Amino acid sequence: MNKQNHLYGHLASAFSIFVWGTTFISTKVLLRSFTPLEILVFRFIIGYAALWLAYPHFMKTKSLKEESLFACAGICGVTLYFLMENFALTMTLTSNVSTIIAAAPFITALFDWFFLKGKRPGIRFMAGFITAIVGIGLISFQGNSTLELNPKGDLLALFAAITWAAYSVFTKKIGEYGHGTVETTRRIFFYGLLFMIPVLTVLPIRLELHRFSNVANLLNILFLGLGASALCFATWNFGVKVLGTVKTSIYIYAVPVITVITSMIFLKETLSLQSFFGILLTLAGLMLSESKIKKQAET
Fold it and tell me: What residue numbers bound the domain in which 216 lies?
């Protein structure tokens, strides 16, 4: 593999995770005026429109199988993932959701092994996964947040992690067709929005566009639509295309770390000793898992 492309893949994946780790601030602001479903729909409509403006050319697929991969990626990575994550947050503790979602890299590695004939997760990968989960647990479960099982919400969070792993597999397969990243992401967004329509018939959203006259609402929804959706999904898909599903997914471990750091910067929250050790363990787990992948790539 071209070393320069390899570097760009890592930078693109790290950038996506950095932005996604900060989105909770924008979401927290928007939840004052919007429902979780409204935020989801508006951000992906904005993202879809932005991708058309960035590359206003229609993409042609060559077969029904190829088109079905886009449909599967859309329903898994956009519709199901975000809906299940959002509903999980209403049924269980945020700390439960963040820790369970962090299992996505492990599930992705299993899917890569089973469905893409990739490497079987080795001892160092497993050690890295366990270390990262312990670190994320330290970050998530502290203060007034205690471990409390909520079966429905926790299962939804687990299913969300599974759908993200499936999304990674589908985007890897899509990458083999050689389409541009912007075109690929736009087609995935199209299906993601399409599969939201049945949900909207049950849980309708309010248009009430006057809410965007509030500068804070407008800037935050634009950040989620243009940055966290259009740009970051494109850079993430590029990372998957260049690095593969497993290498890219490992960066998910860093999301809670970025969330803690941005909370300190923007919300003036203090860094507890427990969070500090959690950050160290999470980063150690990321590097441990990544070192195994690198070793396998060199053999």
Answer: 3-105+147-254
Token pair 């899509």 is at which residue? 174
Note down pLDDT in tens along the chain; length 299 residues. 567 788 899 999 999 999 998 887 888 788 889 988 899 999 999 999 999 999 999 999 989 999 999 999 999 999 999 999 888 877 877 667 777 888 888 899 889 988 888 888 888 888 888 998 888 888 777 665 555 667 788 888 899 999 999 999 999 999 999 899 999 999 999 999 999 999 999 888 888 989 999 999 999 999 999 999 999 999 999 999 999 898 899 898 888 888 888 877 876 767 778 888 888 888 888 888 776 454 444 44
Round to whole Å and give the CA distance between 293 and 65.
30
* 200 domain residue, yes or no: yes
Q: Does 24 map to a domain? A: yes
User: Closest Cα partner for 250 from 213, 296, 193, 218?
Assistant: 296
Q: How many CA atoms lie within 13 A of 272 on its CB side?
A: 9
> What domain count does the chain have?
1
CA distance 5 to 234: 15
Three-class SS state of 271? coil
Rounded to whole angstroms, how far apart are CA atoms 181 and 239? 10
Pair of tokens at residue 251: 């960066």
In this structure, is residue 290 part of a structural domain? no
Indicate whether 87 belongs to any domain.
yes
**Token digits for 197?**
């329509």
